[in-house]
Write a structure and sequence with these properties.
This protein is an alpha+beta fold. It folds into 2 domains: about 130 residues, no CATH class; about 120 residues, no CATH class. It is about 15% helix and about 55% strand. The protein contains 3 helices and 16 strands. The strands form 2 sheets. Strands 1, 2, 3, 4, 5, 6, 7, 8, 9, 15 and 16 form an 11-stranded mixed beta sheet that branches. It has a 5-stranded antiparallel beta sheet with strand order 10-11-12-13-14. A hairpin with a 2-residue loop joins strand 11 and strand 12. The longest helix has 18 residues. The two termini are about 40 Å apart.
């Protein structure tokens, strides 16, 4: 019989498993630094943990002060581990905070908490140590809350930077962009944009927009998608993007179906004001 293999793991150095919270916290910090490959300065990362045998009563991860900017390569997936021994464990309380973390110039405030997160300590035949998450099930669901918030002005500025890059890739220069985000309810938002574009000595205006709604069954619907310009050259450039977006118009995307059986969102809100705030709760 072949030996069992673990593929979806978080490396924690060498066996045996840590026996103190301080050791576990240091191993988590070291792995995060290794996984980012020096692409992100994680010196501000703070990790605190308590340990009781294989159980983790608390694990607190604080991302405050970390800055992520520019194109980043995804870290390589950890190599599969040929398992010598598995030992079950539970993180009784997991929290992830950032007040804030800065992503592409946007200061993002994050607060996430989860309870009874199941995992396994995995010791490899090569002496390596890792943790392997155990997927939640209907009998052992994930219980948690999430809040993500960012200033509306900073989000709009980030959208402008991305639009400038997209326009430049088409030989256009974006000289002005106005973006209006409007809340249409706790799970609905409309986006309207007006851009001034230049190509050589020619100038043109382009407009676009869309509505997004998530119903009580967590089904996302995109509607009223537009992207047009009175200038035929700019309209031709927009045609491809408009076609891709309009292909999604009216399509119902079941977000809940993308989640494991043990992850059930019972409350979801998107509030748009001076801040754009996403909150969610699982039970």
């Amino acid at each position: 019989m072949p030996e069992p293999v673990a593929t979806d793991t978080f490396p924690l150095g060498r066996a045996p498993r840590p026996t103190t919270g301080e050791d576990l916290a240091e191993r988590v910090r070291r792995t995060v630094a290794d996984q980012t490959g020096n692409q992100v300065d994680v010196s501000a990362l703070q990790v605190r943990a308590t340990l009781d045998g294989p159980e983790v009563p608390s694990l607190e991860i604080d991302l405050t002060g970390i800055v992520v900017a520019g194109a980043r390569k995804a870290p390589p997936a950890p190599a599969p581990i040929t398992v010598r021994e598995r030992e079950p464990g539970v993180v009784h309380r997991l929290s992830v905070d950032a007040h804030p973390v800065t992503v592409e110039g946007v200061r993002v405030d994050v607060r996430a908490e989860a309870e009874q997160v199941r995992f396994s300590w995995v010791e490899g035949t090569d002496g390596s140590l890792a943790v392997e998450l155990v997927e939640p099930t209907a009998d052992a669901p994930l219980l948690g809350t999430l809040r993500i918030a960012a200033a509306r002005t900073e989000l709009v500025a980030a959208i402008r930077r991305l639009a400038e890059q997209a326009a430049a890739s088409q030989g256009l220069k974006l000289t002005q962009l106005d973006v209006d985000l409007t809340s249409k309810g706790p799970r609905a938002v409309s986006v309207a944009a007006r851009a001034q574009l230049r190509k050589g000595f020619l100038s043109a205006t382009a407009t676009g927009g869309a509505n997004a709604t998530i119903d009580d069954a967590l089904v996302l619907t995109l509607s009223d998608v537009t992207a047009t310009s009175g200038n035929p050259i700019v309209a031709a450039v927009l045609a491809t993007a408009r076609g891709r977006l309009q292909a999604l118009e009216g399509r119902r995307i079941d977000l809940g179906a993308q989640l494991p059986p043990g992850v059930r969102i019972v409350d979801l809100r998107l509030d748009v004001g001076p801040e754009v705030v996403l909150t969610a709760r699982t039970a």
